[in-house]
Design goal:
116 residues; 4 helices; globular; alpha+beta
Length: 116
């Protein structure tokens, strides 16, 4: 059985917050095992991915899940849908994803496992 990715286009060379919001259900991140040096923020996200893997949830964390996790860790609550704090979360994620030393690999998803 073949898995068809929602996003057949290659990942963008540079992530912008608006694109991240639109494509949060189409992409995920995994740990780049070939990365020799990673930035501090990338190591934190790698730890989250490894923690979820140890609980049997897989090797890829969806952008949707990543946005929720960053928001919760940053603000100690989930902002409402139109809250401007989401802009802070999205910009942080874009900075990490655009950093070549993040130690993360983009993975196209066949479905968003966070929302089904």
């Amino acid at each position: 059985m073949s898995i068809v990715a929602l996003s057949t286009a290659p990942p963008p060379s540079k992530w912008l917050p608006e694109r991240l919001r639109i494509e949060q259900h189409e992409w995920g991140v995994a740990v780049n095992v070939k990365a020799d040096r990673t930035c501090r923020q990338g190591r934190v996200i790698q730890r989250w991915i490894n923690d979820q893997r140890s609980r049997g949830h897989g090797l890829v964390m969806t952008f949707h899940c990543l946005r929720l996790r960053v928001a919760w860790r940053t603000f100690d609550e989930l902002p409402r849908h139109n809250d401007p704090r989401w802009d802070v979360v999205d910009q942080f994620l874009c900075d990490v994803l655009n950093n070549p030393r993040s130690g993360l690999v983009l993975v196209p998803l066949d479905r968003c496992t966070t929302c089904g």
